[in-house]
Amino acid sequence: MRPTASELEILGVLWEQGPSTVRQVHEVLDGRKPTGYTTVLKLLQIMSEKGLVAREESARAHVYRAAAAREETQGQLVGDLVDRAFGGSAAELVMRALSTRPASQEELDEIRRMLDSYRGGAV
């Protein structure tokens, strides 16, 4: 299941903070931009139904955690984007990404290390 932009924001909070109550997630999101508590609650309920988060109901306040690791979710989203927008070509994705937003020298160095490791069969 592909998360929406709002769901990704919530997942980001859960990945950063770990398991959290609705109130804790709301406080973080509301600090970034005004967000209603009931909106966060409803989104977490929907996300639970979709399997994007798991809910621990043993405590008085339900605690939510991301059902998948950040890397797994990002991998699914990127894979879907590569297939849908770039005809399955990872090279096209990378070239478009680098032409759209210039990478820092540190990012370019990391990309170079990754490419070298692929070439060497390490990955």
UniProtKB/TrEMBL annotation:
This is BlaI/MecI/CopY family transcriptional regulator. It comes from the Bacteria. InterPro entries: BlaI_family, WH-like_DNA-bd_sf, WH_DNA-bd_sf. The keyword Ribosomal protein does not apply. Belongs to the BlaI transcriptional regulatory family. Keywords: DNA-binding, Transcription, Transcription regulation. GO terms for molecular function: DNA binding. It comes from Paludibaculum fermentans. The keyword Transcription regulation applies. SUPFAM superfamilies: Winged helix' DNA-binding domain. One of its GO terms (biological process) is negative regulation of DNA-templated transcription.
